[in-house]
Structure formats: C-alpha cells, structure tokens
Amino acid sequence: MQDVPDATTIGRFRARLMELGLWEVLLGEVNRQLEAKHIIMTEGRINIIDATPVEAAQSGYGKDANDEPTRDKDAGWHVKADSRGNIKSTYGYSVHTGVGEDGFIHRQTVTPGNAHDSTERDTLLLGDEAALYADAAYSSQATREKLAQFGIDDQVQRKGYRGHPLSKADLVRNKEIAVIRSGGERPFATYKSRYGLARTRLMGLAKNLTLFGLAAIAHNIAKGAKFLALYGLPDPEPTG
User: Fold this and answer.
1) Label partner for 128 (CA 20 to 30 A): which of 2, 60, 152, 159?
2) 60: Cβ–Cβ under 8 A, 6 or more apart, which residues?
3) What is the model's pLDDT at position 2?
4) What is the dihedral of CA 4, 5, 6, 8, to 10 degrees?
5) Strand partners of residue 51
6) pTM (2 decimals)?
7) Residue 143, Cβ neighbours under 10 Å: how many?
8) Which tens digits make up the pLDDT trace of 68-119?
C-alpha cells in the first residue's frame, strides 16, 4: 500500500488543477465511472439544488505591513434570515451544489457570498433530470419557464410576497417538498463537520473553487465506496 501524499504534494496537485481548470472534468469522470457501475443512477434521477455560506479565511478588517487590507478581496457578504427571522451575515463565499436523491453531487460551483442563490440555477441544472427540488430562493417565473422548457417536474418551493401570502395548498406543497429537498444539505454538513471546511483555508475565488471541487470528488468517491461495501455491484442488465 502506498503512503498517503503529504500536504505539499496535495497542494501542488490542487494548484495544477486550478491552473488547468480541470477539477470539474475530474468530478465528471468520477461520476461517469460511478454511473457505469450503476452506483449513480441516471434514469429518472432528480436534482436537488442548494447553497451554503462559508466564512472566508481572512474576513476581518486588519491590514498588512504595507497597510493593505488583509481580508479576502474575492469574497462578499452573505446576508440571510434564519428560521427564526434573525439576520445573519457572513463574509465569505457561497458553495452551490446539485445533488441526487442518494446524495451524490452532480455539479458544484462557488461564488462570492453576496451572489444570490438563484444566479447559479442554470449552472447546476442538468437538463435531463426528472424533477428539480429547491427552496423558495429559486422560485420565480423564469425558473418555472425554464423547467417547463426542458420538461422537468417543478418541485421548487413557493414563496409569498407582501400582500400575497402563500395559500394553504402552497404551504402543504412546501412541506412535502422539504422532505426530499433537505437531502441537498447533507454534503454541506460533510464539508463543514468532517472535512473542516466551515471556513475556507485559501484566499481567492479560483483557489476555493478548486478546493471545494476536490471536496466534492472526495465526497462522491467515499459515498460510492460505501455503497459498494454495503450493496455490491448491481446485477448487469440483460443483453437480450
């Protein structure tokens, strides 16, 4: 068994992926191999899209020896109300993912924290999913038209507006969607509690895009290995 690569080797590998823009290609190849083994199922699959804020490695107001701000200039303020209506502000980035029902990450991107979740909708949309699940941040006429265009079942939670509160039917619908939609938050829990990524380790958007891309790849490989250990390879489909 080979030794685990040291931090310097991993750092060079990550830097090379960033320079060549290859982390997304690598994630696609990992997923392709998992699909070929029928560990990731593509027929009738759903897509759960969501986003989470991550505090920047340098988020304070300090200055360096040259009197230049030390905070990460690529980051931004993420401002959102929690379930109790309290406003929470985080200076950092937002990690956006598209996740299958079994928790495998289809697609991912990273933006400054001040980018609205819905701006990454099209980046995360696969186009061949049977249904799209998302919270009310993605609810809009544009989203409904996009899903209709691709024939994708609309499972995006509705939101109310001033003078136009949600109907009882929409409230019930939102609760039903939430049961499945919550699965999109599990990779974020893995990132923050197991991978130590509740706060970024690197400065700059490009570096963090690659870092979280590698986290997505690791997440899918680990989940694929777990599925394989628990269930083995599915029986091959009959050829005729």
Assistant:
1) 159
2) 70, 71
3) 67
4) -170
5) 96
6) 0.89
7) 18
8) 778 899 999 999 877 677 888 999 999 999 999 999 999 999 999 999 999 9
187: CB partners within 8 A, 6+ apart = 97, 99, 103, 105, 216, 219
Which residues make Cβ contacts (< 8 Å) with residue 26, sequence separation at least 6?
17, 213, 217
The low-confidence residues of the chain, meaning pLDDT below 50, are none
Residue 179's Cβ-side half-sphere holds a number of Cα atoms within 13 Å equal to: 4
What phi and psi values does residue 76 have, to the nearest 5 degrees?
-155, 170
Query: Is the four-CA dihedral 204, 205, 211, 215 of positive or negative sign?
Result: positive
| Cα gap 25→35, rounded to integer Å | 15
Burial bucket for residue 198 (CB in 10 Å: 0-12, 13-18, 19+): middle
pLDDT in tens, 56-69: 998 777 777 777 77
Tokens encoding 116 = 């609205």
**Is the distance from CB of 52 to CB of 78 less than 8 angstroms?**
no
